[in-house]
């Protein structure tokens, strides 16, 4: 793809342990993931709980350090180039919204005794027309006091703040849970328009498929931190005559059944049925015994190269059978 807005190349990542390094014997949480997205594309990021969606979005949003060549947004690394976020070119919406709303590089409490108007109009350099449109789309009452608002009302203000600057890339980590049906539908329409009219790129991780049937241009499915599938929506529809939600449900069911089967076999062989967890990372077997195969898998404080570079992306066998055209150009 020429000039991708988002480019992930062979990304591997492990949450660091208390000493700042991957725990002994840990396997990367995100493993050999590659993906390219272009201007105007709306990508739905799907996967079961714990698959790694939030971690991937946070890495793209510069919240975790990886080697700069592993993740490029608008040709830059968000972790190393903070102007990507502070300029508003890259916007990340998700995370601990109940406490804070990140804006222009600052964390502002969203539960203070402050009005929606003060928060929204307190941001300088915003196109007034864009601001008015967002207030209308999200149906925000400017007199709402943040400390006395409902979860959904606060959420609308948070979303408005995150969209005030005309982003080029938007990362959404399920932020519509508290929105009512109308607010959600209006927001999704607005975001689609942003991609179509301004060429923005959106990556949206969600479990809620209501109103999404024709929203995405691409579907990306991750399981256990690995890319399983990355396809244009039409291709997914060609492959499955089920609704998008039922299609994703069938993928997750298959994944769960395979996982159960793996556990059954492990148990049969007298091995540990479940993987052990050390410092939030997966460890197979006894961590002490497996210390010998410690690898640094992408993350290292002050270290900007990865031994995993150059590894090829791996897909499930079922996806391989689709051929190379099944994936975004990488
Ligand atoms: N700060 C952290 N330190 C260590 N491990 C973490 C941390 N955050 C998440 N994890 C682990 O990383 C794995 C992936 O988590 P992540 O939040 O990325 O998944 P997800 O696909 O977004 O899940 P969900 O759909 O439940 O939101 C999980 O097993 C989780 O326990």
TrEMBL record:
Keyword Nucleotide-binding attached: yes
Domain ABC transporter, first and last residues per copy: 6-249
Pfam families attached to this UniProt entry: ABC_tran
SMART domains registered for this protein in UniProt: AAA
Organism the protein comes from: Iris pallida (Sweet iris)
Entry annotated with the keyword tRNA-binding: no
Stored InterPro entries: AAA+_ATPase, ABC_transporter-like_ATP-bd, P-loop_NTPase
GO molecular function: ATP binding; ATP hydrolysis activity
Coiled coil: none
Lineage per the UniProt record: Eukaryota, Viridiplantae, Streptophyta, Embryophyta, Tracheophyta
Protein name stated in the entry: ABC transporter I family member 20
Swiss-Prot/TrEMBL keywords: ATP-binding, Nucleotide-binding
């Amino acid at each position: 793809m020429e000039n991708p807005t988002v480019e992930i190349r062979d990304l591997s990542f492990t949450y660091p342990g208390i000493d700042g390094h991957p725990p002994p014997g840990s396997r990367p949480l995100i493993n050999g993931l590659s993906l390219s997205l272009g201007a105007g594309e709306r990508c739905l990021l799907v996967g079961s709980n714990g698959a790694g969606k939030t971690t991937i979005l946070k890495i793209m949003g510069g919240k975790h350090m990886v080697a700069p060549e592993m993740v490029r947004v608008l040709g830059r690394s968000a972790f190393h180039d903070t102007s990507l976020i502070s300029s508003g070119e890259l916007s990340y919406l998700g995370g601990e919204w109940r406490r804070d709303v990140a804006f222009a590089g600052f964390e502002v409490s969203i539960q203070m005794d402050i009005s929606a108007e003060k928060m929204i109009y307190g941001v300088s350099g915003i196109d007034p027309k864009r601001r008015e449109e967002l207030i209308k789309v999200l149906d925000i009452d400017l007199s709402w006091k943040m400390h006395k608002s409902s979860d959904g009302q606060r959420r609308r203000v948070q979303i408005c703040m995150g969209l005030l600057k005309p982003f080029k890339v938007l990362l959404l980590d399920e932020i519509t849970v508290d929105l009512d049906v109308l607010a959600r539908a209006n927001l999704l329409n607005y975001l689609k328009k942003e991609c179509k009219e301004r060429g923005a790129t959106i990556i949206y991780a969600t479990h809620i498929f209501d109103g999404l049937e024709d929203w995405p241009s691409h579907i990306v499915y991750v399981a256990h931190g690995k890319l399983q599938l990355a396809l244009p929506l039409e291709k997914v529809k060609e492959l499955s005559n089920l609704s998008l939600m039922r299609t994703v449900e069938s993928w997750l069911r298959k994944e769960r059944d395979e996982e159960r089967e793996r556990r059954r076999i492990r148990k049969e062989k007298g091995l540990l049925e479940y993987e052990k967890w050390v410092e939030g990372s997966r460890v197979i077997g006894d961590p002490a015994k497996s210390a010998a195969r410690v690898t640094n898998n992408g993350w290292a404080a002050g270290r900007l190269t990865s031994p995993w570079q150059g590894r090829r992306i791996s897909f499930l066998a079922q996806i391989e059978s689709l051929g190379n055209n099944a994936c975004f150009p990488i």
